[in-house]
Task: structure prediction
Amino acid sequence: MAKINITGKGAEGNRIRTFGIYALCVIVFFIFSNFMIDIIIKSTYNPIDIYENELIGIKLDINEAQATYVNGYIGGMIKSDEEMSKSFLKIDLYSKRDVCLGTKYVILDNVSQGEIRKFRMGFKFTDVEYAQISRVDEITNETNDEEFKSDNLNGAILIATVILLCFLG
Result:
């Protein structure tokens, strides 16, 4: 005689286990694909040249200056030789044909003499070949708040949005 399952717990248990295996596979694939994408993106960055101009009162040590075809970043350390209440590090980004693609600013606010500060500035300009860095006391051209927004915050906002959509969706 065949055994008949009246409660149905066996079939539901198998379905839940199968669903759990599928969910685990999706999570592992998500982590693996993000890891591989990160490796591929980092391998596409190429170094860019940095030229220093009029850096009166500060010493600049650039640790990283790299760009892809569409974006990049410049980072390093700034050591102040004098007191600065409000100053800016002006970074002009140029193409291979010496065309100024755009200007970014790093705020140097309330820097005391001998103080060392780290900075990292991201940019989204196409085909950057080199950058010229200078110190200015005021912003000479019109800028928007996007130039002062940290790119690190954009990643956190994206992750928070994905998590929120997973729970609400």
Helices lie at 9-43, 151-168. Residues 9-43 form the longest helix (35 residues).
